[in-house]
Amino acid sequence: MQQNKKTTSDTDVYQEVTNKLIQLLEKGTVPWKQLFKASEYGFAQNYYTKHQYSGINWFLLNFVTNYEVPYYLTWKQVQKLGGKVIKGSQAERIYYVNFYCTDDEGKTLSAAEVQTAEENGTPLKKHPYLRRYTVFNISCTEGIEWEKPPLETQEIRPIERCETLLDSMEDLPKIQFIDKETAYYAPLKDVINMPKLQQFAEHGAEAYYRVLFHELIHWTGHSTRLARKGIMLMQNKGKMIYSEEELTSELGACMLASLTEIQEENLLQNSAAYLQSWLDCMKEDKRFIFRVAPQAENAVKYILGS
């Protein structure tokens, strides 16, 4: 088997990923609800280079796949480490942006020609395109000596982890408890409103923090922070902008819930209407998830201070 490294059109890649998510949603599976062990093993990374995946790959390898340890290798990297891929193992596709250059007449330049042009100060036009690669989870390999990272032995309550996360934030949000019935983020006042913790007695404290995380992701979209369209244009946003912001907050909240070990199996609505809303957006715009996943990643990184 060879290393898969294909050049493909942007349209093919966007449609490919979107189709995969649509298939999961049509089966009733919410991929971003999957609980990976980020608090134990960190985010998905390349085991050989120790590079942490980002963008759409961050979303696909942390949420859509469901391996215990989020370490991945290319076919060649498995061979370099003296191992082999177990027969019948599932390969996971990842995507990277690359560029090619053209001159003023539209001629595509080779790497050598690009280098010469840059050295001579000749103006070039850069054109982005997507490349598709395949990787294997390390559990799909054999012959490679590796150990799982040691798990934390001390028992820390999920609520304590949540408070630790909030306390570690340099830019603390303003949280008020005025409206006792509804949780929301008010961008004009830059305030998060939450019902009090005691009001979540029926569903547990985990539900409180899960809801707070959702609003906290909205909070990162303020003009003084990440300036997302879904918050900046809240007064006159259309369906697509609204859906982007809501899914961004849902993905980000799921990530924070996983980091703080909240077992939120019953906290995400799985109604037919809920699933259909995301299906409609993805079928309408194949680039939808490509915009949303990086926004959720950036929001989480902002909260974590990374």
Features:
single-stranded DNA binding, Antirestriction_ArdC, disordered N terminus, 2 domains, plasmid, alpha+beta, 306 residues, 41% helix, single chain, 5-stranded mixed beta sheet, 3-stranded mixed beta sheet, 10 strands, 11 helices
Total separate domains: 2
What's the tally of helices? Answer: 11
| Percent range for β-strand residues | 5-15%
Residue share in helix:
40-55%
Domain Polyvalent protein metallopeptidase: 179-293
Keywords: Plasmid
Domain N-terminal: 12-136
GO molecular function: single-stranded DNA binding
Describe it.
By secondary structure, the protein is of the alpha+beta class. It folds into two domains: 138 residues, no CATH class; 147 residues, no CATH class. Helices cover 41% and strands 15% of the residues. The strands form three sheets. Strands 1, 2, 3, 5 and 6 form a five-stranded mixed β-sheet that branches. Strand 2, helix 3 and strand 3 form a beta-alpha-beta unit. The longest helix has 21 residues. It is globular, with a radius of gyration of 22 Å. The N terminus is likely disordered.
